[in-house]
Amino acid sequence: QVQLVESGGGLVQAGGSLKLSCAVSGRTLNGYNMGWFRQAPGKEREFVARITWMYGATYYADSVKGRFTISRDNPKNTLYLQMHSLKLEDTAVYYCAVGRGAIPDDYWGQGTQVTVSS
Q1: Angle made by CA atoms 15, 16, 18, in degrees to the nearest 5
Q2: Which 8-state DSSP code applies to residue 13?
Q3: CA angle centred on 59, ends 71 and 107, rounded to 5°
Q4: Terminus-to-terminus CA distance in the chain, angstroms?
Q5: Would you say 72 and 65 are in contact if contact means Cβ atoms under 8 Å apart?
Q6: Are 13 and 117 in contact (CB under 8 A)?
Q7: Are 79 and 22 in contact (CB under 8 A)?
Q8: By three-state DSSP, how is residue 7 classified?
Q9: Among residues 103, 100, 101, 59, which one has the least CA distance to residue 81?
Q10: 51: which residues sit within 8 A by CB, 6+ positions away?
Q11: What is the pLDDT of residue 1?
Q12: Residue 106: pLDDT band by 50, 70, 90 thresholds?
């Protein structure tokens, strides 16, 4: 059974930084792409960033480009999201996901809350 566990969320002031981690267990991630999504209160879940298995190519939502960095440590089966210059609108529950598709969505974590305060 595949399990994804996010950590690193919390309360941070606007302009601050946080680093999220997502530890994956239950299978190796060979061939799996990985990504981060978020859901703010009253809004639909949205794509944040993704990284491919093959070449580690990265893709970002326009709203986070230049501020967030996605990375992965394949031997450790761990995904990261480094977030800088956080804004109030970044407040959301952040989810990691892995999958075979370009937009990874086969397996999901339970989410970690990120709250940005003024």
Answers
A1: 140
A2: E
A3: 65
A4: 40
A5: no
A6: yes
A7: yes
A8: strand
A9: 59
A10: 33, 34, 35, 57, 58, 59, 70, 71, 72, 79
A11: 82
A12: very high
Instruction: Give the tens place of pLDDT for each residue, 5-14.
Output: 999 999 999 9
What is the C-alpha separation between 23 and 40, in angstroms, rounded?
22
- Cα atoms in the Cβ-side hemisphere of radius 13 Å centred on 21: 9
Name the amino acid, one letter, at 87.
Answer: K
Q: Determine how many CB atoms are found less than 10 A away from the CB of residue 81.
A: 26
Residue with tokens 């309360």: 11
In angstroms, the CA 65 to CA 71 distance is 14
Radius of gyration of the chain (CA): 13
Residue 33 neighbours by CB distance under 10 Å: 23
Contact predicate 68/82, CB 8 Å: yes
Tokens of 66: 């230049």
| Pairing label, strands 112-117, 10-13 | parallel
